[in-house]
Specification:
Elements: H1 3-14, H2 24-27, H3 37-41, E1 47-52, E2 58-65, E3 68-75, E4 82-83, E5 93-95, E6 101-106, E7 115-120, E8 129-130, E9 139-144, E10 151-156, E11 165-170, E12 176-180, E13 186-191, E14 197-204, E15 207-213, E16 220-227, E17 232-237, E18 243-248, E19 256-261, E20 267-271, E21 278-283, E22 290-295, E23 301-304, H4 307-313, E24 323-329, E25 335-341, E26 346-352, E27 358-363, E28 375-382, E29 388-395, E30 403-409, H5 423-430, E31 434-439, H6 448-452, H7 461-475, E32 479-489, H8 491-502, E33 509-513, H9 519-524, H10 535-540, H11 547-555, E34 569-574, H12 582-594, E35 599-604, H13 614-632, H14 642-648
């Protein structure tokens, strides 16, 4: 009997094995149609990442061809779309300055040793070429050079794994010329579109210094400095070179856009959102003036600092709250690609800024089943110590209460959840669960004081915030207190392990993906090139070199509390993860099993900290829905025939 025959028979046998809900609020109530797992993670209608070429004549984007995610290109004035013919799943790309070649960064199986590849869109049969074939090296694109389509600036750590030098790279030959040797204290290099090194950020003795090259010598002069506790991000020099724009909370609580005079060092606030930090700012590549400032107080907010751009984007503000993101623009300033998202889907447009016309390029696959998804709304509540907390609640479209609930914890921890289409949240809501996302203290976006409130609070007040979120949902009649799961990736996985070991009475079960179990060994094993950026981590978590910190780190490591676990755990780990290494999950699972605690363990070969391949995402989602159905009483789609496809192909 052939493998295909066996597969067909197995598919027929397993068909119709969906698990019906058993929770009282779901069992006898009308639910939206059950969306198959494959539609969330392996939908052949997928398209996205649209980018206009610098000369404004071509579009490139990602879509599915057969069973692979590939890059497609077409001329702007012709319907001549074609695939470049290679697998590009999980990786972004950008146009080279010549508008003929694409550049993208890719690693091997999630090991984060990224190489730079080029592909010629006019000769795709040649395939992608690795133009930085260096062993055990991490490469990054520093700068696309405006007037030199033959070269770009890159950084890599071949000479010293702990630091990154700056190189000019010939993208045809792969020949590199080093133009800056990093002596180990420089964390950021500032370059312009002509490929010139214009500034650097140097770190020393708990401070960082923005320095400019001293004309006529090899020396550098200090412009300003700030403490490591400050959040200062250098953006771009102005066109006349008289100022530089920064995102900065130096001397203030919230991150604002400031203009820094390069002669006097005087700062002027250009734009600030009094409610929250600015998340990021886009600089116009032609004028080098700030164009868009983004913040996320509850719903997304974009402030158009260019009046002409404000008029162009007004056409997208006609249907309630949306996130509007300009994802690329041509050098002439005529065309831009724009992504517009709400909480259930994303639409992609080409905007002609000359006449205001917008062309719909595509929609995210979620638009096929948006009617079966929940609505996400901002929420807020007060933590037990009086701190105001914010987050988001996604509810399935059912009227019965209380619901089984999943507390979905973001990673980082120094990032945050925002209002947008969230695949995991919507997947869980479609299965019948209320989904709560809490921006616990230490999450970015809410100002310096909110970040500082997390210092020393791993498994302490950071976790109390999550538990207080559960109590809020129970008090509102939303969540069934006996049927709450905790789930997350990276720090969210750590929070899951903390929840199941240190507050076992709160959570019925947990799903941990790449969550650290031992904080001391986790920190010792971080990549060496992370060291310049470890200041906040060490203040929040601890330094293994300090005996007192080591004791505190062990006291906050879930692996030391497995005897307290009450409910079942599902632990998921990428085999090649360099951030949270396989050893973290191996040891946690071994300790749980030795203690006789229920745990399922899924190790994904060829994956790192992120799960990139559709077949592995399919497996993770399938195991998660079955696991939660047995624990919380929601529903599961059961066997998905794409599982056979992943086996066969």
């Amino acid at each position: 009997m052939t493998r295909i025959t066996i597969a067909i028979l197995l598919a027929a046998f397993l068909a119709g094995c969906a698990i019906k809900p058993t929770h009282d609020s779901l069992r006898d109530h009308a639910l939206p149609r059950l969306v198959p797992v494959r539609d969330f993670v392996a939908n052949t209608s997928y398209n996205g990442h649209y980018r206009i070429s610098p000369d404004g004549t071509r579009l490139a984007w990602k879509a599915v061809a057969g069973t692979r995610e590939e890059i497609f290109v077409r001329s702007l004035d012709q319907e001549n779309a074609r695939s470049l013919g290679f697998d590009s799943q999980g990786y972004d790309f950008r146009w080279a300055q010549d508008s003929r070649r694409l550049l993208f960064i890719r690693d091997a199986g999630g090991n984060e040793n990224f190489h730079l590849f080029r592909v010629d869109v006019d000769a795709p049969e040649r395939g992608p070429v690795d133009i930085t074939p260096l062993d055990n090296v991490r490469v990054g694109i520093q700068q696309i050079i405006r007037d030199d389509p033959q070269h770009i600036l890159i950084t890599h750590n071949a000479r010293d794994k702990a630091v990154f030098d700056l190189y000019r790279l010939d993208i045809d030959s792969g020949v590199m010329e080093r133009i800056y040797r990093n002596e180990g204290r420089v964390t950021r290099l500032v370059t312009d579109r002509e490929g010139r090194l214009r500034g650097r950020v140097r770190q020393q003795d708990g401070r960082r210094y923005l320095e400019l090259p001293d004309a006529g010598s090899k020396a550098w002069r200090e412009l300003i400095h700030w403490d490591e506790d400050d959040d200062v991000r250098v953006l771009k020099f102005t066109a006349d070179g008289q100022a530089i724009h920064l995102l900065s909370n130096r001397g203030r609580d919230k991150i604002a856009l400031v203009r820094l005079d390069t002669t006097t060092g005087q700062e002027t606030v250009v734009y600030a959102d009094p409610r929250v930090d600015l998340s990021f700012v886009q600089i116009d590549s032609r004028t080098l003036a700030p164009a868009l400032a983004y913040s996320h107080p509850d719903y997304p907010h974009v402030e158009a600092l260019d009046p002409a751009l404000a008029r162009s984007l007004a056409v997208f503000r006609d249907q309630g709250p949306v996130g509007i993101y300009v994802t690329s623009a041509d050098d002439a300033g005529r065309y831009a690609t724009v992504s517009v998202n709400d909480d259930r889907t994303v639409s992609f447009y080409l905007l002609d800024r000359h006449n205001g016309e917008r062309l719909l390029l595509g929609r995210d696959v979620s638009q096929e089943f948006a009617d079966a998804l929940g609505r996400m709304r901002p929420i807020s509540f007060t933590a037990r110590d009086g701190l105001q907390l914010h987050g988001y609640l996604t509810l399935p479209p059912v009227s019965a209460r209380p619901l089984p609930m999943v507390l979905l914890v973001h990673g980082g921890p120094f990032v945050r959840d925002i209002w947008q289409y969230n695949r995991r949240a919507q997947f869980l809501a479609n299965r019948g669960y209320a989904v709560l996302q809490v921006n616990y203290r230490g999450s970015s976006g809410y100002g310096r004081a909110f970040m500082d409130a997390a210092m020393g609070e791993f498994a302490g007040r950071m976790h109390h915030d999550l538990v207080d979120g559960v109590k809020w949902a129970v008090s509102q009649g939303i969540a069934d207190p006996q049927r709450v799961a905790i789930m997350g990736r990276s720090y969210g996985g750590y929070a899951t392990l903390v929840g199941m070991t240190m507050t076992p009475g709160v959570f019925a079960c947990g799903v941990d993906t790449a969550g650290p179990a031992d904080l001391e060994s986790l920190t010792r094993d971080f990549p060496v090139y992370w060291q310049p950026f470890m200041h906040r981590w060490k203040k929040t978590v601890g330094d293994p070199a300090d005996p007192g910190d080591r004791d505190r780190m062990q006291a906050r490591s879930p692996i030391n509390y497995v005897d307290q676990v009450q409910g079942p755990l599902l632990i998921i780990q990428g085999a090649n993860d360099v951030r949270v290494k396989l050893d973290q999950s191996d040891r946690m699972v071994e300790a749980l099993r030795e203690a006789g605690k229920p745990v399922d363990y899924l190790v994904l070969t060829g994956e790192g900290h992120r799960i990139r391949h559709w077949k592995n995402r399919l497996r993770v989602y399938r195991e998660t829905e079955d696991f939660l159905a047995s624990c919380l009483g929601g529903r599961s789609s059961g066997f998905d025939y794409y599982q056979l496809g992943s086996w066969l192909f």
